[in-house]
Specification:
With 446 residues, this protein is an alpha/beta fold. It has helices spanning 3-8, 12-15, 68-92, 103-113, 120-127, 132-150, 189-201, 220-233, 246-256, 270-276, 282-295, 312-324, 351-364, 374-379, 384-389, 403-406, 422-436, and strands spanning 21-27, 30-35, 38-43, 54-58, 61-66, 155-163, 207-212, 237-241, 260-262, 298-301, 304-305, 329-330, 333-334, 369-370, 395-399. It folds into three domains: 3-91, Roll (SH3 type barrels), CATH 2.30.30; 97-145, no CATH class; 148-436, Aldolase class I (TIM Barrel, Alpha-Beta Barrel). Helix 8 links the parallel strand 7 and strand 8. Helix 8 packs parallel to helix 9 and helix 9 (246-256) packs parallel to helix 11. The longest helix has 25 residues, at 68-92. The chain binds iron/sulfur cluster (SF4).
Length: 446
């Protein structure tokens, strides 16, 4: 049976998106897990576990104990396809057969392959490549390095956008406060809970991002209450993405049980930041992200690629600014002009620039996870996601927002998957992952 059929015939709840591992030992607060013969580590804060238990982990946290019989069935099911997928990934990550890249490109990329330091000017050279052979080789090397450090592991999160109200006015964003043409929505607590419930119990998601604009209706206490309710009935790694809430707000989220924060800084250039965010200061944004990391959250952060006024040098500085924040995962997506914003007359960047950003990011941080963003897919509906994966990315997010609201979370126009059911998105994701030989194996610490 082809491995794709093997994958799709797995019960959905077991498919999305983790494979259980067996606890073989303990190391302080961490458990050591056997995972198809490999050793991985995961923090255990919430569950009572013992040697021999099977667990699901996400982002390096134990989130669930799986009954042995169920775990054995899933592992048995995965065994054949897992190794087949790994072979596909290995084959696709080979460097042989790359077109002939220019000498300077090869010299710089040789350094990356040998783990030697690449300096700022050299990274800038890579980010500015225009020749197809040069770019192709950059992507190949980035994918090779991704494979070397992460194997075929792919992390799949779900995202629920629960309110499109926002008190901020970021110039690039379609749900900014000043966009009076947009119909606003706010999901009720019951709707949010029901959406999470379905994502976990029907589709098997193990990691979910709760996202909204900066909606004053949901203060830090209200969101913390929601986090507690969600985690009381679901085994889940929960990320919060509601804009700036200050250190006190972040601590409340952490105490309530959330373990991840998604907050981008968009640009690390102070002047550009203040032009794009008339009310806000870059220093506050960076302090918020740093505080999230210090509290112990897994941090997802990144920036916009191709925003008006940005140079390649700025993008590179953004990559290094993001790296300094030690994120669990990077998210760098293209600027897509929204017709009802002050930046409507600008053009989006070339897809290649976004892919080069992902590739350079992969060279700059071999360990971090990198999302192939929905915005990239929107920019190039046919190949965006997979090209992102082939340029060094290894994570993706599926949109779980109820369909009646999804189109209203209109941060940029024509967002892909807006009208697709969750089931359809999952099917497409499985198909793409299978083609690329990637498996949902987010279990260990890095
Ligand atoms: S980017 Fe975020 S904070 Fe800014 S307007 Fe959009 S939703 Fe609000």
């Amino acid at each position: 049976m082809p491995s794709y059929l093997l994958l799709t015939s797995l019960p959905l709840a077991n498919m999305c998106y983790a494979i259980p591992g067996k606890i073989t030992d303990f190391d302080g607060k961490k458990v050591i897990v056997d995972y198809f013969g490999e050793k991985r580590y995961a923090y255990n804060e919430f569950k009572e576990v013992k040697k021999g238990d099977y667990i699901y982990a996400q982002g390096g946290f134990v989130i669930n104990v799986v009954p042995e019989k169920e775990a054995m069935e899933i592992l048995e099911f995965w065994k054949e396809s897992f190794f087949k997928l790994r072979e596909v990934d290995l084959r696709l990550a080979r460097l042989e057969g790359s077109g002939v890249a220019g000498e300077k490109t090869r010299i710089i990329l040789d350094k990356a392959l040998e783990g030697r330091k690449i300096d700022f000017e050299e990274y800038l050279y890579l980010l500015s490549l225009e020749d197809e052979n040069d770019m192709g080789y950059l992507f190949k090397v980035a994918n090779f390095i991704r494979q070397k450090h992460h194997k075929n592991a792919c992390c799949v999160h779900g995202i629920i956008e629960f309110s499109n109200f926002c008190s901020s006015d970021c110039l690039y964003c379609g749900i900014r406060k000043s966009n009076r043409t947009l119909e606003r929505y706010r999901m009720s607590e019951e709707e949010i809970l029901q959406t999470v419930r379905e994502a976990v119990s029907v589709y098997g998601f193990k990691s979910i991002v709760l996202q909204s604009g900066e909606d004053p209706h949901f203060d830090a206490d209200g969101i913390s209450f929601l986090i507690r309710r969600i985690l009381k009935e679901n085994n889940l790694l929960l990320f919060i993405s509601v804009g700036e809430v200050g250190e006190r707000g972040l601590k409340k989220f952490y105490e309530a049980g959330a373990r991840g924060v998604l907050i981008r800084f968009e640009t690390s250039d102070k002047e550009l930041y203040s032009k794009l965010h008339p009310r806000d200061a870059l220093s506050y944004r960076m302090a918020e992200i740093r505080a999230a990391g210090e509290i112990g959250f897994l941090v997802l952060t990144g920036g916009l690629v191709g925003v008006p006024g940005q140079k390649n040098e700025d993008i590179l500085k953004d990559i290094f600014a993001a790296k300094k924040l030690c994120p669990e995962m990077y998210t760098f997506g293209p600027f897509l002009p929204h017709p009802d914003t002050p930046l409507s007359q600008n053009q989006p960047p070339a897809v290649e620039l976004v892919l080069k950003t992902i590739a350079v990011l992969r060279l700059a941080d071999v360990n971090g996870k990198i999302v192939s963003t929905t915005a990239l897919e929107t920019l190039d509906a046919e190949k965006g996601r997979n090209d992102g994966f082939m340029a060094g990315a290894n994570s993706l997010m599926l949109n779980l927002t109820p369909e009646k609201y999804r189109g209203l979370y209109n941060i940029y126009p024509g967002r892909i998957h807006e009208k697709e059911t969750v089931k359809h998105q999952i099917d497409k994701a499985i198909e793409d992952l299978q083609k690329l030989g990637r498996a949902p194996t987010d279990i260990g610490l890095r």
